[in-house]
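Design job #97: recover the sequence.
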C-alpha cells in the first residue's frame, strides 16, 4: 500500500463512498480526525530528510521501503538524501564502503534472527 492508496482510502471512508456508505457517521467523523493528523504528519515527512536517511541506512530496509511506499517521489527522495548526507557528513560521504559481500552469512549464526548486522 502506498501513501496515495492510504490517502484515497481515508477519503472514501470520510465521505462514505463505495463500501463505506453504510458506515456510522461517528466512525466517519473519527476517521476524519485521523485524516487531519495524517495530513499534518505527511507534510512533516516531506520536509524531513532524516526519516528517509534512517530507512536508507537501515540494512533491513535500505531504499526498497521508500520505493514501495512513495514510488512517484522515490528519485527525488534519493537525490535529497544524497545531498543531505554529503552536506551533513562530508568526510563520511567521501569514504569508500567496505566490501561486506558474504559477511552477513558469517554473522548470521552469531546474532538473533531479528537483529541486523548494524546493531
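Job complete. Output follows.
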Amino acid at each position: 500500500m502506498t501513501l496515495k492508496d492510504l490517502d484515497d482510502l481515508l477519503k472514501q471512508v470520510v465521505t462514505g463512498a463505495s463500501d463505506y456508505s453504510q458506515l456510522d457517521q461517528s466512525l466517519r467523523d473519527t476517521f476524519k480526525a485521523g485524516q487531519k493528523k495524517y495530513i499534518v504528519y505527511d507534510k512533516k515527512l516531506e520536509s524531513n530528510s532524516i526519516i528517509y536517511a534512517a530507512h536508507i541506512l537501515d540494512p533491513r530496509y535500505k531504499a526498497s521501503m521508500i520505493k514501495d511506499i512513495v514510488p512517484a517521489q522515490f528519485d527525488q527522495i534519493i537525490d535529497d538524501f544524497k545531498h543531505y548526507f554529503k552536506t551533513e557528513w562530508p568526510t563520511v560521504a567521501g569514504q569508500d564502503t567496505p566490501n561486506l559481500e558474504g559477511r552477513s552469512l558469517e554473522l548470521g549464526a552469531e546474532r538473533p534472527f531479528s537483529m541486523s548486522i548494524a546493531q
